[in-house]
């Protein structure tokens, strides 16, 4: 038997169920956990869209989360409601503009016309984080 990396599941993740996809479409906030260079966690609230079993998160290019992901792409995401917890793991892939139009449109629809590609700082750029689900730890039921 060959040892495996515990962070790499042997089987592909199960796709999100229809009730979970509905919940992810309605929830407005998630918490993104990245790993700092010293190994400590960095947790921050984010706006997101979920499409095709992938989380999409817009952020400023100079943010701590982007710097952390550039060094270690493993992340966790969770919704705010602890009564019906949703927790996913994956590896974040940062994208520079131009962003996929379907993702931009999904952000605009979810967040009242907000354009995920517009920088918040005059001298900044925007990054779109793509996080395909590697593993669902919880999908709405507390253990």
UniProtKB/TrEMBL annotation:
Gene3D superfamilies: Electron Transport, Fmn-binding Protein, Chain A. Residues 19-138 form the Pyridoxamine 5'-phosphate oxidase N-terminal domain. Keywords: Oxidoreductase. One of its GO terms (cellular component) is cytosol. Residues 9-18 have a biased composition (Pro residues). It holds the Pfam family PNPOx_N. InterPro entries: F420-binding_dom_put (IPR019920), F420H2_bilvrd_red/Heme_oxyg (IPR052019), Pyridox_Oxase_N (IPR011576), Split_barrel_FMN-bd (IPR012349). One of its GO terms (molecular function) is oxidoreductase activity, acting on the CH-CH group of donors. Residues 1-20 are annotated as: Disordered. PANTHER family: HEME OXYGENASE HI_0854-RELATED, PYRIDOXAMINE 5'-PHOSPHATE OXIDASE-RELATED FMN-BINDING. NCBIfam families: Rv1155_F420. This is Pyridoxamine 5'-phosphate oxidase. It comes from Streptomyces lincolnensis.
């Amino acid at each position: 038997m060959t040892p495996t990396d515990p962070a790499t599941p042997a089987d592909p993740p199960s796709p999100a169920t229809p009730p979970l996809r509905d919940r992810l479409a309605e929830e407005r906030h998630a918490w993104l956990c990245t790993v700092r260079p010293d190994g400590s966690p960095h947790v921050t609230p984010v706006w997101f869209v979920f499409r095709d079993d992938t989380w999409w998160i817009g952020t400023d290019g100079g943010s701590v989360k982007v710097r952390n992901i550039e060094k270690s792409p493993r992340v966790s995401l969770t919704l705010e409601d602890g009564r019906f917890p949703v927790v996913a793991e994956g590896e974040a892939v940062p994208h520079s503009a131009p962003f996929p139009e379907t993702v931009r449109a999904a952000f605009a629809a979810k967040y009242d016309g907000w354009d995920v590609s517009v920088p918040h700082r005059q001298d900044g750029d925007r990054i779109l984080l793509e996080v395909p689900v590697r593993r669902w730890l919880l999908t709405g039921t507390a253990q």
